[in-house]
Amino acid sequence: MPTLEYHDKIAVLDLGGDENRFSPDFLDAVEAHLDTVLAEGAQGLVTTAGGKFYSNGLDLDWLIANGARTQWYIGRVQALFARVLTLPIPTAAALPGHAFGAGAMLAIAHDYRVMRADRGFFCFPEVDIRIPFTPGMAALIQAKLPPKSAIASMTTGRRFGGADARDHDIVEVCAGPAAGTPPPPEPPAPQGGQRTAPHRPPHKHP
After folding, report:
1. Torsion angles phi and psi, residue 165, rounded to 5
2. Residue 160: what are its φ and ψ, rounded to 5°?
3. What percentage of residues in the chain have a pLDDT greater than 90?
4. What integer pLDDT is reported at residue 177 of this predicted model?
5. Mean pLDDT of the chain
6. Which of 4, 32, 82, 104 could form a disulfide with 99 if both were Cys (CB 3.0 to 4.6 A apart)?
7. Average of pLDDT values for 92-98?
8. Regarding beta strands 173-175 and 122-123, do their DSSP bridges make them parallel or antiparallel, or are they unpaired?
9. 3-class DSSP string for the chain
10. How far apart are CA 121 and CA 97, in angstroms?
């Protein structure tokens, strides 16, 4: 399940070490951590993961077992995208591996994206698995990606490696294999003064 820690005033939300699919419990945990991030006055947010997946997106097993709640579930997923998109602090997604479907949409809801060069794909597989984009999901992708990249990713199911994703302006930075998880961005400097981020030892929220 997701965990939260801090590097000074930058919150680092680790989505987990599995496929990090969006089960209702997963969504609850992420939303609770975002509440904490805002309540504790973080100056930035980095989301990442501990395994070979950033996120594999929708929990299709849960959807199959709970078909009558599909609209409720999709509404919750889209609410998470909207919340990350409108957070009042800078956000960055550090992709250590695969970001598929709704997991890729979560990544592009951030202000910035960093992806490893040696591992993982960024992909919208909806065309291959015959799941249509909702209007909200399509609007998010088209707003955050250049038109050619949006068309290529939405209509072909293309898998973008790190360098390919950078060349198509899906991610801003492609990190080398030895880079690991990139360091979080520095908080913005206060107006009229020097950057002052008090030292804060890293701590975790279970």
Report:
1. -65, -40
2. -100, 120
3. 83
4. 60
5. 89
6. 104
7. 97
8. unpaired
9. CCEEEEECCEEEEECCCCCCCECHHHHHHHHHHHHHHHHCCCCEEEEECCCCEEECCECHHHHHHCHHHHHHHHHHHHHHHHHHHCCCCCEEEEECCEEECHHHHHHHCCCEEEEECCCCCEECCHHHHCCCCCHHHHHHHHHHCCHHHHHHHHHHCCCECHHHHHHCCCCCEEECCCCCCCCCCCCCCCCCCCCCCCCCCCCEEC
10. 7
Q: Which two tokens stand for residue 137?
A: 């999901």
Percent residues over pLDDT 70 in the chain: 85
Residue type at position 183: P
pLDDT for 124-172, tens place per residue?
999 998 899 999 999 999 999 999 999 999 999 999 999 999 999 999 9
